[in-house]
Design a protein that fits this description.
Largest sheet: 5 strands, mixed
Helix content: 55-70%
Number of helices: 11
Distance between the termini: 48 Å
Shape: globular
């Protein structure tokens, strides 16, 4: 059961990260469809996990499909007609009126099906409209990819692919540190979940924990830029697949005493400095805005050759 629950928590975190990104990318035209899609994804995951828990507990599976009353209409009518042949003549009129009322009930329109049909039609219409608009747009993904390859060549860099998910920033920073044979243990002494530096933790989990601990211990430097309570913000960093950004890169640069360079397709390099004096290692990340399905993405850059 513990393994199943652990798996379920990971699935929920991944789904929440996916839903968050979908909602961020939604436009006014697609927001309703995106919300419906997200709700359906949550419903499907909950149903799947409930079935898995039932299997583990040895509980019998319950058929969740509702009985369609339309399928019973003709059978009920036939039963009434058969019974009508066996009753006295003075009850035939009562049986006939009862059958008529039953037929009227079964012929009432199904409002839920009508709503679903309208919603499906609206989603198809929005998808068609988006497809038409996309045909008139430049291929931003290809343009960005071509520009990045040119920049890598000119700077003598090669790209190390990072899995496209909410952990990509943290995984890219971890890869940079590891490829430079630098420990994932921060140079600054931080309180918090130091046990995450054990060999059982994934590298991105360690850098997530380091970023959260640094922000927690230097809250005054970060609070002016937060739009939610600090505890909630730190919980998202430590325990979910929430995307990271400039604040998390700044925390990691200071915790590991490194400079972090973020190369963009425009050729601009955003340099995030640790603020410490003296010579420091420089980490290189690439930042994509269009080239990955989930939206913004970070990869790790290494020296070519």
């Amino acid at each position: 059961m513990e393994e199943v629950q652990k798996k379920h928590r990971q699935e929920q975190r991944d789904l929440q990260a996916r839903i968050t990104q979908k909602k961020k990318s939604a436009t006014k035209k697609t927001r309703k469809g995106v919300n419906d899609e997200c709700a359906e994804l949550e419903r499907q995951l909950k149903e799947k996990q409930n079935l898995e828990i039932s299997d583990v507990n040895g509980e019998p599976k319950i058929n969740s499909h509702p009985l369609n009353t339309n399928d019973l209409g003709s059978e009920g009518q036939l039963t009434s007609e058969v019974k009508a042949t066996d009753v006295e003549n003075d009850l035939q009129s009562l049986s006939g009126s009862s059958t008529q009322r039953k037929d009227e009930r079964t012929k009432k329109p199904n409002r839920q099906k009508a709503r679903l049909a309208r919603r499906t039609a609206e989603q198809e219409s929005m998808a068609n409209q988006a497809s038409k608009e996309a045909k008139d747009l430049p291929d931003l993904r290809q343009q960005e990819s071509d520009a990045m390859r040119t920049l890598y060549s000119s700077r003598g860099l090669s790209e190390h692919q990072i899995r496209s998910d909410g952990h990509c920033l943290y995984a890219a920073v971890a890869d940079q540190l590891i490829s430079r044979e630098q420990s994932l243990v921060p140079k600054q002494s931080l309180n918090g979940r130091n046990h995450l530096t054990s060999s059982s933790a994934a590298p991105y989990e360690i850098t997530r924990s380091v970023a959260a601990s640094y922000i927690d211990e230097h809250a005054d430097d970060f609070l002016p830029f937060l739009e939610e309570p600090l505890d909630d913000y730190l919980s998202k960093i430590r325990d979910t697949g929430e995307w990271g950004g400039h604040l998390e890169l700044l925390a990691l640069a200071k915790a590991y005493d490194v400079d972090i360079n973020v190369l963009q397709s425009s050729g601009h390099v955003e340099k995030i400095e640790s603020g410490a004096h003296g010579s420091k290692p420089s980490l290189w990340l690439s930042y994509y805005h269009h080239s990955f399905g989930l939206g913004e993405h970070y990869n790790s850059l290494r020296q070519a050759g």
